[in-house]
Write a structure and sequence with these properties.
CATH topology of the largest domain: Butyryl-CoA Dehydrogenase, subunit A, domain 3
CATH superfamily of the largest domain: Butyryl-CoA Dehydrogenase, subunit A, domain 3
Strand order of the largest sheet: 2-3-7-6
Order of helices and strands: HHHHHHEEEEEEEHHHHHH
CATH architecture of the largest domain: Up-down Bundle
Low-confidence stretches: none
Number of strands: 7
Shape: globular
Distance between the termini: 59 Å
CATH class of the largest domain: Mainly Alpha
Radius of gyration: 22 Å
Length: 417
């Protein structure tokens, strides 16, 4: 069944339904046990393997390298649909797809060719950038230092989303002189320990816990040529979250409609003998569905800006690239608060159309708000609004994404000025 037939609107391209068809069958299977997995904290290892076997990890990889060559709007359209089935899995793939963008935007090199091949063989990547503790923004306590002909890695990472399911971890560390350096670490290497200790109330199955590295041997070929990410990375990673929220909205709308349709008990002050005929109940259902529809439309519109940034990056035109990167960042930031507010509200008001029994854990309706609230807590939306306002009033372009940590000296000085 296509997006159009479900009134979610046309896909982002004429070929989208053809591309999506085989994955929609897998999404339907994933959706079957979404509530049970959430209640039982059952990691979706099998479900992620289904997607991997179907080539989902290669969505953005060029066709000549064994991928599907999707545009960014097509890619985000599929992420919305996967998130409707299970947003944990979308989040688990987030770092993998970000690394894929790194590779396809990288200058031609042996390193790029190697990773195009590995990605084409459906090898997958988890995240290893965030650290806890008192480290300054832009620095790493994790160390990657020279050791003979290779390197030795020691440290600990948190928010290592997707790493339990992945073949590799892409991470940032500090070298012998304290400079940032990037590397790929095999998840099965001696000295690597990955824990499922993420205890958040939402996105519980995204494997976002701790990874420890104890004297892990890293060869030269696994060192990234540059620690820098692709130029539109900030907007890209944020839009993955927005697509996830749009998918959560669709799932909430679908669950609500089903519960209302099946509900037989009514209140004495109601307007009909069944909830399915009560206009006030139907109004709530319509509001939730409308929020999901608009969120998806906004996310796909922002994806068009990212596509322009990608194409500008390929063009070699520095001025075009700078403008497209800036606009992509702004268009995504302009979407953040709107989508977040719509889905958080929708995942709350849906209970107004149901009775107290809707709060049963076995129904899993609470997972929509918990997942949405957790996703929305990444990269606080208040800063996105301020960035957009600063551009609108003062013409200032967004500052680079600076990560998270204890304030660096320049930030402390700015705050005291």
């Amino acid at each position: 069944m296509t997006n159009i037939s479900q009134a979610w609107g046309a896909g982002p391209s004429d070929r989208f339904d053809t591309i999506a068809a085989p994955f929609r069958q897998i999404f339907a299977r994933i959706r079957e046990r979404a509530v049970a997995r959430d209640v039982e904290r059952d990691l979706p290892r099998e479900e992620i393997r289904w997607l991997k076997d179907a080539g989902f990890s290669t969505l953005r990889l060029p066709v000549e390298n064994g991928g599907l060559g999707l545009t960014l709007p097509e890619f985000f359209g599929l992420l919305i649909e996967l998130s409707e089935a299970d947003p944990n899995i979308t989040n688990a793939y987030r770092s993998h797809f970000g690394f894929t963008e790194d590779v396809i935007n990288a200058p031609k090199s042996e390193w790029r060719n190697t990773w195009l091949t590995r990605l084409g063989q459906r090898e997958t990547i988890g995240s290893g950038f965030s650290e806890t503790g008192d480290g300054k923004i832009g620095t790493y306590s994790t160390r990657l230092i020279r050791n003979g002909d290779g390197w030795q890695l020691n440290g600990e990472k948190y928010y290592t989303t997707g790493s339990l399911y992945a073949d590799w971890i892409t991470l940032g560390a500090a070298d012998d002189e304290g400079n940032p350096i990037g590397a790929l670490v095999p998840t099965g290497a001696t000295g690597v320990e990955i824990l499922d200790d993420w205890d958040g109330f939402g996105q519980a199955l995204s494997a976002s816990g701790t990874a420890r590295f104890n004297d892990v041997a890293i060869s030269d070929d696994l060192i990234k040529p540059s620690a820098a990410r692709f130029s539109y990375s900030g907007g890209f990673f944020q839009l993955v979250h927005l697509a996830t929220l749009a998918g959560i909205g669709r799932a909430a709308a679908g669950d609500l409609a089903r519960h209302v349709s099946e509900r037989k008990r009514v209140y004495g002050r109601g307007n009909a003998s069944r909830s399915a005929q009560d206009p006030q109940i139907l109004q709530v259902v319509g509001k939730v569905r409308g929020a999901a529809y608009v969120s998806g439309a906004i996310a796909l519109k922002a994806a068009e800006a990212l596509q322009r940034a990608f194409e500008a990056n390929q063009s070699g035109d520095a001025a075009r690239k700078a403008e497209a990167d800036r606009n992509a960042d702004l268009e995504v930031s302009q979407s953040v608060t709107v989508i977040t507010s719509l889905i958080l509200d929708a995942s709350t008001v849906l209970f107004d159309a149901l009775g107290a029994s809707a709060a049963k854990r076995s129904h899993g309706l609470d997972r929509h708000w918990r997942n949405a609230r957790t996703i929305a807590s990444h990269n606080p939306r208040i800063y996105h609004d301020r960035i957009v306002g600063d551009f609108a009033v003062n013409g200032n372009a967004p500052a680079p994404h600076g990560g998270i940590g204890v304030a660096a000296p320049q930030q402390e000085a700015k705050a005291q000025a």
